[in-house]
Amino acid sequence: MHNQHPQxxxxxxxxxxTPIGNLRDITLRALEVLAGADVVAAEDTRNTAHLLTHHxxxxxxxxxxxxxxxxxxxxxxxxxxxxxQSVAFVSDAGTPAVSDPGALLVQAVLAAGLRVxxxxxxxxxxxxxxAAGLAAPHFLFYGFLPxxxxxxxxxxxxxxxxxxxxxxxxxxxxxxxxxxxxxxxLGGTRRIVLAREITKLFETIHSCALxxxxxxxxxxSNQQRGEFVVLVSGAEPQAEGLGAETERILALLLAELPxxxxxxxxxxxxxANRNELYQRALAVKAED
Length: 288
Ligand code: SAM
Known about the structure:
3 domains, elongated
């Protein structure tokens, strides 16, 4: 039960992260802001009313801001902020503006010269990453892929060479076809982690080779239900090779000099690795 006599908040737009399943995953500061704000702007007022009443906070100051009225609602909220009111903004679940409404509102509030305060907390992508066991230091958060397979494959093609863990959101009715496309474009040997229903009753975090994921999903239709974060390990770094300019210099020297001398000079001119240049020189000679 939250304190029913909240402190008055400074006028600002507070962008508040809310739970992604378990209603207890909310910070003390988020509760204070939700209790103390003059207005709580929510993507889905019914859903947010449920969260607020669960924590003993009055749900009377709720107004709706969703994808379809975000610009119009921004004007209304800016007027409230200019009148000195505090506004808490929440999306349906997790962090606003992460594959959710919020970015346009924040942009408009900043453009009006008003203050925006982040109140950090859960996000499905970060929760999934934290428990995925993919050790790469970098990740690329993509969010939702296109709905249609051709467009999805084209995006995946663009992402295929990045050596970063790829993080996607996917709907349950598309999870199997999405996994098929991931496997077709990225190859079967990368690791995939399917993080389903995080923080909820049927939370499942399954890791396997991409080529085995579709069979795993189809072996139990329960595994296709609920909400998913899909993580895929990044591309293996490619051997760099010598580079075009080093190749050119080596070829010129090899045309004029014995192999050892050519390699010696090429090392001095280019600074490339002696052994790599030597191996390449042998290959060039063999090709001649
Ligand atoms: N703003 C949210 C965040 O910070 O995570 C994301 C909102 S987006 C509209 C909803 C998508 O997030 C779902 O379709 C699913 O891919 C992912 N998601 C949200 N909650 C989840 C959960 N509990 N488990 C797994 N994925 C979840």
